[in-house]
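Build the 3D complex.
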Amino acid sequence: MNASPELAAVPRRPLPILTPQQISALKPELADVIEYRKSGLSLNWIVGCPIDCVYCVRHLFDNFEMKVPRRLMSDEEAVAALVSHRYFRPHKTPIQLLNRATDPMLPVVKPHLFNVLRHLDQQGLTNHVLIITRWRIAPEDCVVLNSFKNLRLTVLVTHSGIDNEKIEPVDSNIAAESLRTLYKHAERYRTVLYWRPIVPGLNDSDAHLARARELSVHAHATVFTGLFFRKEIADYYQAHGLSMPYDDTARRKIMPEVAEKRILDYFHTPEYTAAPWGALFRKTSCAVAYAHGEADYNGHYGIRELCNICPEEQIALCRSAWVKPDLAEVTDEARTLGATGEVEVTDRAIVVEGLDEPPRYYLQHGFGYQCHDRAKPHHYRQHGRAPIGWLAEDGPKTA
Amino acid sequence: MVTQKPIRIGVLGTHSTGKTTLLKRIEMELRSHGVTVARTSRLAKRAAGIGLPKMQHHTAMSTEWIVTQGIADEIAAAARGAEVVLADRACLDALAYFQAALEFRGEHLHRLERERLRLLTSTQLPKYHLLLATVLDPDVPVDDSHDYDARYRLLVDRHVHGLLADDEIEHQRVTSAPDSQTRAIERALQLCLQEAAV
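Done.
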């Protein structure tokens, strides 16, 4: 359902800003508007969402019951907080806007998203900006998204095809229509089909796969990924009598080997020798980079088995951009950030100890080279994934 | 119709015609516009939970409980500050269920008792800014997790729309057709957003 012209004419109220007392009642992690995640420095100055996908990460912030979006600060304050953040580097640090606690394209949120984009663009910043949505996008939104002159903007549209309303009450057709609209009108921005969460038995039937392939035609690239299933989310499933997708929970996303194989087999077209899997990617940043004709900014090329489905041209691009950094330089930066123990630079990644995710991502994005915690190794062929649904397999020594 | 806030939208209709789904969709859309919404729910289940009969076994007592509890739920939602209250089973709905139960059982109710219940529900009608009445579509399969009596379900549908017609109560019919659902959602949004903008 798209907004009728009469509806569009109704004046909108600006989104209220929570009082300091209300903000202090939130979980501190939620009240902290900036979080460094793998795909970028994430700015979340608006919280609350009515879409109610039961697997939402808002469970981790005790925020699932907040259904109406509210601001934590003004748009201008949010921009200032981002660009003055200790880990923000102009033109380099990838940025994510509103990807944690609301949907950026909700009608009451959208004007604030556009306002922040406008401020960032006016500063001449060319950083990647990622926006993830599953809500409606109209052609007039595309006009705004095309209007930014400097930012490298990507709109990722989440589409799962899950038709169980108890798991995902929002109609998947909304996202499908948004993707088509975005792709049709794309000039300066790029759009990615964010095919997730894929859960075996729930949304990986042949019909689901066919639907995803049909939709992938309307995107500059497609990423497929699994379910993020932490204890807080599992507890909600249990309390609401929903059938559990997995017996165990995990720190990383779950994407079983069998499900991945089914997807890869379905997308494989051997006669397209230069890109047998088309523009299908395992990693968000790989898809974003491909959509903009650039090398991956996360240095995934070091984890070579991730690239075995990538288009030849993209592999060449990533290969040429991927440079093993100098150990002394890395060690110096890592120590400044607080690293303890030995700092290593292997053929796959920088390996550190004593650094949380934010400084690791700072190093990773700075050097364009993976940065791993020695205590949380990535296993061969399971990069960024939980061990659930994978049998151990011998591979190169990893970290 | 009264003009004071909150805005009240009620839905009524026989079971398994998408009442709750429709209200959940309206709720999601309103919240996406930043409107605070409260939705009343599970009246029949709660009535059964305290030992009252349900469906074709409804009595004057179970009907009165559902009507008055519905009133109390709507007041409680308003007191908590909701800008819009969505009533899942506007009060007239309970009367239709009861009348259908009586017809199903071939019973008649004393005139005074009938008038009393009718008066009770009619005092509430002016509170609703919009009434949405779902229409039974015989081609849509029923939720098979419930053991519904098909004849009773049909009778409820007839009584819901009969009561609305008899008293010429303004309402919007909502069929199972996607267009009809969309029109209902748009009307609710239009009403609430215009009021909210004032």
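Residues 103 and 155 of chain B are 8 Å apart (CA to CA).
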